[in-house]
Amino acid sequence: MRPSALDYGIVFAAAFGITLVLTPLAGALAHRIGALAYPDERRDHPRPTPYLGGVAMFLGLAGALAVAWQRDAFREVFDGSSALVGVLVGAAIACVVGTWDDVRDVSPPAKTAGLVLSGSALYWMGASMILFRVPYLDLIVLSPDLAPLVTVVWVMGMANATNFIDGLDGLAAGIVAIASGAMFLYSHRLVDPAVDVLGADNPAPLLTIIVVGICVGFLPFNFNPARIFMGDGGALMLGVLTAASTILVGGQTDQPFSGQAYFFYLPLVVPLVVMGVPIIDTAWAIVRRASKGVSPDTADKNHLHHRLMRLGHGQRRAVLILWMWTALLSAFVLYPVYNAGRGDAMVPIGVAAAGLVLFTYFHPGARRTREG
Fold first, then answer.
1. Is residue 88 assigned to a domain?
2. What is the residue range of 132's domain?
């Protein structure tokens, strides 16, 4: 028995509803214990804002997994492996480490150690990178010595990419929601019996629809002006969840999928393109800080979202622009999956991208800023 649209809808509703209900309660608890983000020279919010949004999102994740576990349609997913248990444990570790950093400050080595532990939990429970595809080269089968290292490095990279982009109200939650929505459509397509690249027991579609639910449930309280922040606890957790879903899709099957031949030849690159905005931002932030002789962990106001604001876009418009870019990247990824052989379908995506570039640089607000 394969999950139906109704089954996925029920799980999404559970993730959305639990997060929606618990987020204001988490904010009230943050006020009570003093877990607040105070305005300073690198923060753009005008008043103290509570953290602990990540805790509500984690509880939404756990609750939605419990709902899915009770449904017969997902029995094969849970019986097939312990990967989802590993994902839950890894997400919990990342959430605890990040939340502790929000409340008491954790050193970069300690945060790194926490992410290593989180990635290790994924590996030991079955959400491990086993295969690695490289364009124009043969499929690389990772040795037992190399698989845990690659898994941990992948988790750390995605977690830090998500954390770096969490700089404006609603930005990280929106980007991850869009990216996870694309990954749901992609992985759901691959478990389709007509395609049969991934087995029906693959947990990626279930995991990604839950991530969409917790992000959408959190956004009403986090969009500008934000009433609560996800903090490092939420950002690192979302990065771990994104890493886990991509590992389950691209790192555990040796079956090729013809729709990906035109798109870098490998399903594993899907997260790199879907998460293109935060990954580009992360790479540029590391280069920028290294050129100044400072640590990559040093905060500054030169991320992509800060540059958009200096162009004259307000917080909301800067966030919406980055959301739209992520949606376009996602559409570009999904095109060969659903429209193989129909090249003219790329034209609307190209037109939308050109229009978004023009909007970004020639919007009246941006034009006035440059002329001033």
1. yes
2. 5-270
217 located within any domain? yes
Dihedral over Cα of 5, 255, 175, 104: its sign: positive
Does residue 140 lie in a domain region?
Answer: yes
Q: How many Cα neighbours within 13 Å face the side chain of 370?
A: 12
Residue 342: inside a domain: no
Q: Give the C-alpha separation, 40 to 351, whole Å.
A: 40
| Burial of residue 357 (number of CB atoms within 10 Å: 0-12, 13-18, 19+) | exposed
Q: How far apart are CA 238 and CA 54, in angstroms?
A: 9
CA distance 271 to 126: 19
Q: What is the total count of domains within the chain?
A: 1
Q: Which residue in this structure is represented by tokens 């491990």?
A: 128
Q: Exposure pattern of 305-337 as b/e (b: 16+ CB <10 Å)?
A: bbebbebbbebebbbbbbbbbbbbbbbbbbbbb
Q: What is the pLDDT of residues 221-269, one digit of tens each?
A: 999 889 999 999 999 999 999 889 888 887 666 666 543 433 333 333 4
What's the burial of 240, exposed, middle or buried (CB within 10 Å: 0-12/13-18/19+)? buried
pLDDT tens per residue, range 161-194: 888 777 778 888 998 999 889 889 888 888 887 7
